[in-house]
Amino acid sequence: MKKETSHFADLVQMTKPRICVLALLMATLGYMMGSHTTLSGWHFFFTLLGTGLVGASSCIFNQVVEKEVDSLMWRTQNRPIPTGRINSVEAVKLAALMGVLGEIILLIAVNSVTAILGAITLLTYVGVYTPSKKTTPMSTLIGAIPGAMPPLMGWTASYGSVSIQGLVLFMILFLWQIPHFLAIAWLYKEDYARASLPILSVVDKNGSATSKQVILYSIVLLPLTLVPTVWGITGVSYLWGALVLGLLYLLCGVLLSVYQTRAYARLLFLVSIIYLPVLGFLMVWDRVA
Predict the structure, then answer these.
(1) Which of 19, 55, 103, 128 is the most buried (most CB within 10 A)?
(2) Helix axes 149-159, 139-147, angle to 10 degrees
(3) What is the number of alpha carbons within 13 Å of residue 21 lying toward its C-beta?
(4) Domain shared by 21 and 127, yes or no
(5) Do 109 and 147 have their domain in common?
């Protein structure tokens, strides 16, 4: 028997709290790396608040558009909208309110550059990535673009503009997402197939293309994570930490490629969850002023 949930709990669930928390952690990373002075408490608060509201809005709009798809998949069929616990009209109103409020906060209390990036995040996630999931295996790459925006938004919030250093943070998160999401796609490929979504793991019957992409993006990610030390932004401790993490991430991708089992897909997923916050912590901890 499924546990009953409150209306408020359903509203919170639609914002995908775990994804939003990760986005806020990455925005914090970008903010701290881009800050040349001590953190401004209110400015930092409004950066996270605006970023969080825009991210939550994106997640809710996504679920409104995908309600039929979600109803076909075991891992999503108990979400509030497919089950009817929340109707689409209420969800759209909540998403619109959050999105507009988030953009106003970013524009007035942070800066226009960060507000523009927030709008791009919302529009690409809902208007480009969400429909692409029904048409192309490239949807993972498309979705990784808005998914990588939080650290760049944090950077522009504190630094004041887009710079090459901020773009490196964007690219690190972009590249990290591909093996992470392909591991998820491998674990739930039957579910995606049931919903007729042409995710790479579904169309790639023998798993070879999926494995190659996991390894490719892990290889490209590794040297990119070392760039902050090369530029003198972080120290040697971060360099060694990033190197070990990158090799571990790559090793998990190789193991998945060789054995092609759910167990190694799950291992890659778990390591990806550990990789990102540890890398971010090392980057901030070993930051060179």
Answers:
(1) 55
(2) 30
(3) 7
(4) yes
(5) yes
- Report the distance separating Cα 69 and Cα 224, nearest Å: 36
Residues in the chain: 289
Quote the distance between the C-alpha of residue 77 and its chain's center. Answer: 22
pTM above 0.90, yes or no: yes
User: Quick check: helix, strand or coil at residue 233?
Assistant: coil
Residue the block writes with tokens 């991210």: 55
Longest dimension (CA), the chain: 56
Picking from 99, 127, 162, the residue at the C-terminal end of a domain is 162
Structural domain containing residue 20: 1-162
Same domain, 287 and 230: yes
* Chunked mean pLDDT (size 10), the chain, 289 residues: 74 95 96 79 96 98 96 94 96 98 98 98 97 95 97 96 97 98 95 94 91 97 97 94 98 96 97 97 87
